[in-house]
Backbone:
């Protein structure tokens, strides 16, 4: 039980560091774009241009959109939320399903291959920890079932 909780806490810590680090790094690198959102309002981050279907987009507008999709629109926020959920479930002794770990590991492996060098591969470790923790729970349940059968 303790090792499963420890594995899930490590996995959640990795996810929190990856997500928060991504957002913090973006805030440092694209400080001017983020400050522009504050000046112009949050709706200025990715403005809707329904009427200008054929209008030429400026480099500044494209940079603004890239900053949004690399920051608050990226997977960093859901990764932080998944890390918080995993931390909470670990504290309650509930195992995260192995499918979540496999999905996280696959997504991070693909991201790491496509965007080299990057810390994406640390997410593979978090996914593996979730899978191992889920399997530990399955094994302990099987042992309990055998003990009940023997009694």
Residues:
């Amino acid at each position: 039980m303790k090792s499963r909780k420890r594995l899930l806490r490590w996995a959640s810590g990795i996810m929190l560091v990856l997500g928060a680090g991504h957002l913090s790094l973006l805030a440092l690198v694209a400080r001017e774009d983020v400050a522009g959102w504050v000046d112009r309002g949050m709706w200025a981050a990715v403005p809707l241009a329904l009427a200008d279907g054929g209008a030429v987009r400026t480099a500044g507008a494209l940079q603004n959109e890239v900053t949004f999709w690399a920051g608050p629109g990226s997977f960093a926020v859901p990764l932080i939320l998944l890390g918080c959920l995993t931390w909470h479930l670990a504290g309650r002794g509930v195992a995260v399903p192995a499918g979540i770990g496999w999905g996280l590991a696959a997504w991070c492996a693909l991201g790491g291959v496509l965007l080299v060098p990057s810390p994406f591969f640390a997410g593979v470790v978090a996914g593996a920890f979730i899978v191992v923790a889920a399997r530990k729970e399955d094994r302990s349940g099987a042992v309990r079932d055998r003990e009940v059968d023997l009694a």
